[in-house]
Amino acid sequence: xxxxxxxxxxxxxxxxxxxxxxxxxxxxxxxxxxxxxxxxxxxxxxxxxxxxxxxxxxxxxxxxxxxxxxxxxxxxxxxxxxxxxxxxxxxxxxxxxxxxxxxxxxxxxxxxxxxxxxxxxxxxxxxxxxxxxxxxxxxxxxxxxxxxxxxxxxxxxxxxxxxxxxxxxxxxxxxxxxxxxxxxxxxxxxxxxxxxxxxxxxxxxxxxxxxxxxxxxxxxxxxxxxxxxxxxxxxxxxxxxxxxxxx
Length: 247
Fold this sequence. Notes:
By secondary structure, the chain is α/β, with parallel strands linked by helices. Helix content is 30%, strand content 19%.
């Protein structure tokens, strides 16, 4: 089952439903198209609009801190979390295929341009000529490298990530290794905090872990209760205790 939503619908009026679907690990593929604007309602600011964004509903600029969709998903213990870019169709297709094959809730944020109300929102890092230097493609088990010649990478200094040049002072061995299957979500959460332009924008699978799926747990619970108590009788249940005949 695919649930297609947006930054406005999914993180505003639908935020409650989103969080609880994720925490229960229902077998859904949630695709959130993030264009940092309300498109269907004609251009109001959304929960992901950047601070200072001027729109019809914020003519002097938004004073709201934006929500990071991936932070929300990981905080709700999503078992599959990913990000892709709308115009990078090959990578987008691969990401959605992996999401579809995941048992449990998969959450994929897609950076999508809204050419009517927020055109060019992601151009600084999504355009083909800029992508190599501004986007970090996450690959499980591999060092985090980016740049036209993969000459840059992400390293950890203390508790903070930093961009380093591979060469005299840093080698590939110094770079952070991606591990999407860690049960502890600390690494995945750290990656969601890499914000452009200080850092490249991470895309790909941030987290991919296995946990019991909600409907499986529900069926197991019903089966265990039936083995202990029997299947039960609905008519007997409805007619138990005080009853009334309405004529």
